[in-house]
Amino acid sequence: MHVSVRTARFTDSIIRMGYDLQRELLRKTIHMLIALVPTIAVMIGVGPAIALLASGIIVYTYAEVQRLNGHPVFLISRLTQMASRERDFGHFVLGPVSLGLGALLALLFYPYPAAALAIYALAFGDGISSVVGKLFGRIRIPGTGGKTVAGSLSCFVAILAAGSAMLHNPMDAVIIAVFGTAIEALPSKDFDNILLPMGVGLMVQVLAII
């Protein structure tokens, strides 16, 4: 009898882990679509790209308010529910708003390539680290709110790859990757979507001046 109970609990745990991973993969796939913003800005201009991001934030905010009031908006509310984390259930899901704001502020405050690298750090550094942390994260980093060594290493590699492709000085790419990884490791929850691109963009600008 005890064996059956333990087996059932183990099976439930595996199913729950699989469901959580599917949810995380969907959430981070949507998250990484923000990497399209620099290309859009080049194609249509920074001003229209900012207007597009602002419009998206407003539409999403309206959809979330409607969902919480029992009037889900087609597709947007469904995707929000499917990608929501457990801590978001019954609450306004802030992630997409902070994601859009992070990219919007990067375009507002930084020129190319700082703005583009800031957004790529947000899209891939934060996005990949979360998935890798879920899949392979065993060693947690104290004081980071649950961030893992595996996740932080993948964040470093992702930002380093983007920086190496965009910057002329490899050492600058390393410094930016270290700095971005440190920001991503902060226990800032959804606000890392703003802190990470703003921090990375600022560091790119500082290194360009030095």
Descriptive report:
The protein contains nine helices and no strands. The chain has 210 residues and is an all-alpha fold. The protein has one domain (2-204). Helix 5 packs antiparallel against helix 6. Keywords: Kinase, Membrane, Transferase, Transmembrane, Transmembrane helix. The chain crosses the membrane at residues 30-63, 89-110, 116-136, 148-167. GO terms for molecular function: ATP-dependent diacylglycerol kinase activity. This is Dolichol kinase.
What's a concise summary of this model?
This protein has 210 residues and is mainly alpha-helical. It contains 9 helices and no strands.
Nearest-integer average pLDDT: 88
Query: Strand content of the residues, in percent?
Result: under 5%
State the secondary-structure class.
mainly alpha
Whole-angstrom Rg: 19 Å
User: Whole-Å distance between the termini?
Assistant: 69 Å
User: Largest sheet, if any?
Assistant: none
Q: Quickly count the domains.
A: 1
Number of strand elements: 0
Global shape = globular
- Write the H/E string, N to C: HHHHHHHHH
Question: Helical proportion?
Answer: over 70%
Poorly predicted runs are: none
Number of helices: 9
Give a topology summary.
Blueprint: H1 2-32, H2 37-44, H3 46-68, H4 76-83, H5 95-109, H6 114-136, H7 149-166, H8 170-184, H9 192-209
Helix pairs in contact: 1-6, 2-3, 3-5, 5-6, 5-9, 6-7, 6-9, 7-8, 8-9
Keywords:
single chain, 210 residues, mainly alpha, 9 helices, globular, transmembrane
